[in-house]
Amino acid sequence: MEKATFSFYKRGDITLPETLTIIPLKGDVLFPHLVLPLSLTGEELVKIVNESLSKNELIGFITLRYHGNAPKPNDLYDMGTAAKVVRVLESGPDSVTTLIEGIVRIKVIEYIQTEPYYRARVEEIREFTERSETVDVLMQSIKTLFKLSTMLGKTLPKDIISKIDDIYNPSVLADLVAIYLELPVDEKQKLLEITDPQKRLRIVFHYLNKEIHLKGVRGKIDEEVAKEMSKIEREYFLREQLKAIQKELGQEDPRREEINKFEEKIKEAKMPGEVEEVAIKELERLRDINPASAEYPVSRTYLDYLITIPWNKKTTDNLDILQAAKILNEDHYGLEKVKERILEFLAVHKLKEKLKGPILCFCGPPGTGKTSLGKSIARALGRKFVRISLGGIRDEAEIRGHRRTYVGALPGRIMQEICRAGYSNPVFMLDEIDKVGADFRGDPASALLEVLDPEQNSNFVDHYLDVSFDLSRVLFITTANILDTVHTALRDRMEVIYLPGYSEEEKLKIAQQFLIPKQVKENGLENHPIVFKDQAICKIIREYTREAGLRNLEREIASICRKVAKEIAAGEQITKEVTPESAEKFLGPRKFFYQVTDEEDRIGVVTGLAWTETGGDIIFVEASRMKGEKELTLTGQLGDVMQESAIAALSYVRSNAKRIGIDENFYDNSEIHIHIPAGAIPKDGPSAGITICMALISLLTGRYARREVALSGEITLTGTVLPVGGVKEKVLAAIRAGVTVIMLPLKNKEDFEEIDKEIRDKIRCVYIQKVDDAIGTVLIPK
């Protein structure tokens, strides 16, 4: 709006005619009592203004809804203001600058002329307001806020503030304040069209209050910015003064000193050529950054990491194979395949200097020593040992790092741990690789492909560092309970070594050589050594634990050591020797029983062998028959594979019923129910087919099934028994449960014979090719 003033003009000497010449206003609204300078172009408009001034006639001013070169009547609002020309300031042939004064609100009834200018029939909009306490309060509040706005920096004509107290007309006050509000044109037009002065006062009060609030907030922000700027300026001058003082004292600028230290460290780091170029370039960038800038610590931290990384610093491998074998045997009992693989690596490394580190994967049940085996390998090689757990990691940046554009960016866990190790060739253990997750933040398992690929990891690029690092010298070891959940491409890059679990003899020797000395030390019994009898350890293994690993066995030994420590602390009689009786006294009633030998033979109940991620286990398959109509019911939380095995077993029995000695029509009026106990535990796998088939044959022939005979194998509809996996785990589980005979597919013969002889001697194995081969051994003749 151009500079406007306010008038207390009284229209007693001017009469509103029925028709008025209409002049469109662009981007502004004319209110009554407003004196506004206005520039108009066009011969007709110059003529209209001059005639209006000479004849003292009114002109209608109406705001345009839409701006255009040739506006039509529909482009104008319906309401506007009748105004008189006060003075012509400057006039020419086709332009005029004039001063107009709003008189009264008008409404257009009908346009009677559009060329060469608009003319319309109009009517006056009269306003009537009864004075009330509400109106008085509103007027007083508006006057107060209007004055407050000038204190907050609002620009107003000088005479407005002095005249506002003399206004007692609500309509005039509302129009006056509306003129100076910072509102869009359409909002001002709405105020012009409100004919009730009290309603207009309320809206004006709302806008004025909002405007003052925003000015207050803006003023507060400006004040804070000014303070911050003055603080920065003050810090700058103080730094300049400090530099001058240090120069007089002969001291070096701390920042320059830091830059010089970085230069020295870059030279000492012995980085590869391309990495050194990146570091020098970043250092030059650091010189130009203001220390108060947010970029300074980011650049400084990046340089710190580049310098800290052990680019060419590595440990010398202990290539004495006999010494390495001695260390491995000291730390671990058994695990001959793993030890043999490490000694092979050392032998090859001795013959070939530049050898890429293998990617080993230790797969087996919990508690079988996978993680501790990694520490022993590092000790045997004379390398540093680092470990990270991948369990639950879902963010790809945990492996590859965050890009430096992110706030709080850091290198990935791989490069962080190598920095902590201080050497470029540590033994690096990635625990729980089978428990890596994936979500919207990326797939960490896929990110590990580059890390664990011997052909690619010589140029591993971390997103944060953005330079390549040679990981081929690192000996990576991963651990997993099962391989089914590991990414297929990732599994292909690893050399898998299975740790199936320990037999009772192995657990006994490990307890005597490792677990008991460790718990005696950890529980403060070095000065009061206790002796565990072999029979006591065997009792703990058989009656208080049932596992493939050693964790529960170690917990029970630790429990006995704590109770002995309590005896010492209480001054009671100290137990110096742990016997089977004292073990039971310390640990309470036995927790596990032999599931097979403690039960009797039954019809339709057969013992099976299963493999889980925690080791082998035995299952019981129960079959029953009742009246019904050709229906098969399966219960016990069976997975899809086991459900299909049950259907295949039933189909085999039905198709071979006559040959086996079963009524061919047994299924016509029968319902068969197959159940595997422990119904709350999900079960699945391809090794229960023969067990289910034997349970059905036992049920339908009425012959008892030997409980101490356990089976494992999948069957086809032709009766062929297919091979299965996890043989050693299943054999150990059978021995723990008291099974005396196991039946395995003939193609698993080599797997059984690979098991240690001392384990094989505890159980008899019968090999089968067809279902018929198992019937005579499993079922007792009538």
From TrEMBL:
<dbReference type="InterPro" id="IPR027065">
    <property type="entry name" value="Lon_Prtase"/>
</dbReference>
<protein>
    <recommendedName>
        <fullName>Lon protease</fullName>
        <ecNumber>3.4.21.53</ecNumber>
    </recommendedName>
</protein>
<dbReference type="InterPro" id="IPR046336">
    <property type="entry name" value="Lon_prtase_N_sf"/>
</dbReference>
<dbReference type="GO" id="GO:0005524">
    <property type="term" value="F:ATP binding"/>
</dbReference>
<dbReference type="InterPro" id="IPR008268">
    <property type="entry name" value="Peptidase_S16_AS"/>
</dbReference>
<keyword id="KW-0645">Protease</keyword>
<dbReference type="Pfam" id="PF00004">
    <property type="entry name" value="AAA"/>
</dbReference>
<dbReference type="GO" id="GO:0034605">
    <property type="term" value="P:cellular response to heat"/>
</dbReference>
<dbReference type="Pfam" id="PF22667">
    <property type="entry name" value="Lon_lid"/>
</dbReference>
<keyword id="KW-0067">ATP-binding</keyword>
<keyword id="KW-0720">Serine protease</keyword>
<dbReference type="InterPro" id="IPR054594">
    <property type="entry name" value="Lon_lid"/>
</dbReference>
<dbReference type="InterPro" id="IPR003593">
    <property type="entry name" value="AAA+_ATPase"/>
</dbReference>
<comment type="function">
    <text>ATP-dependent serine protease that mediates the selective degradation of mutant and abnormal proteins as well as certain short-lived regulatory proteins. Required for cellular homeostasis and for survival from DNA damage and developmental changes induced by stress. Degrades polypeptides processively to yield small peptide fragments that are 5 to 10 amino acids long. Binds to DNA in a double-stranded, site-specific manner.</text>
</comment>
<dbReference type="InterPro" id="IPR027543">
    <property type="entry name" value="Lon_bac"/>
</dbReference>
<dbReference type="GO" id="GO:0043565">
    <property type="term" value="F:sequence-specific DNA binding"/>
</dbReference>
<keyword id="KW-0547">Nucleotide-binding</keyword>
<dbReference type="Pfam" id="PF05362">
    <property type="entry name" value="Lon_C"/>
</dbReference>
<keyword id="KW-0378">Hydrolase</keyword>
<feature type="domain" description="Lon N-terminal">
    <location>
        <begin position="20"/>
        <end position="212"/>
    </location>
</feature>
<dbReference type="InterPro" id="IPR003111">
    <property type="entry name" value="Lon_prtase_N"/>
</dbReference>
<dbReference type="InterPro" id="IPR027417">
    <property type="entry name" value="P-loop_NTPase"/>
</dbReference>
<comment type="subunit">
    <text>Homohexamer. Organized in a ring with a central cavity.</text>
</comment>
<dbReference type="InterPro" id="IPR003959">
    <property type="entry name" value="ATPase_AAA_core"/>
</dbReference>
<dbReference type="InterPro" id="IPR008269">
    <property type="entry name" value="Lon_proteolytic"/>
</dbReference>
<keyword id="KW-0346">Stress response</keyword>
<feature type="domain" description="Lon proteolytic">
    <location>
        <begin position="600"/>
        <end position="781"/>
    </location>
</feature>
<dbReference type="InterPro" id="IPR014721">
    <property type="entry name" value="Ribsml_uS5_D2-typ_fold_subgr"/>
</dbReference>
<keyword id="KW-0963">Cytoplasm</keyword>
<dbReference type="InterPro" id="IPR020568">
    <property type="entry name" value="Ribosomal_Su5_D2-typ_SF"/>
</dbReference>
<feature type="active site">
    <location>
        <position position="730"/>
    </location>
</feature>
<dbReference type="GO" id="GO:0016887">
    <property type="term" value="F:ATP hydrolysis activity"/>
</dbReference>
<comment type="similarity">
    <text>Belongs to the peptidase S16 family.</text>
</comment>
<feature type="active site">
    <location>
        <position position="687"/>
    </location>
</feature>
<dbReference type="Pfam" id="PF02190">
    <property type="entry name" value="LON_substr_bdg"/>
</dbReference>
<dbReference type="GO" id="GO:0005737">
    <property type="term" value="C:cytoplasm"/>
</dbReference>
<dbReference type="InterPro" id="IPR015947">
    <property type="entry name" value="PUA-like_sf"/>
</dbReference>
<feature type="binding site">
    <location>
        <begin position="364"/>
        <end position="371"/>
    </location>
    <ligand>
        <name>ATP</name>
    </ligand>
</feature>
<dbReference type="GO" id="GO:0006515">
    <property type="term" value="P:protein quality control for misfolded or incompletely synthesized proteins"/>
</dbReference>
<dbReference type="GO" id="GO:0004176">
    <property type="term" value="F:ATP-dependent peptidase activity"/>
</dbReference>
<dbReference type="GO" id="GO:0004252">
    <property type="term" value="F:serine-type endopeptidase activity"/>
</dbReference>
<dbReference type="InterPro" id="IPR004815">
    <property type="entry name" value="Lon_bac/euk-typ"/>
</dbReference>
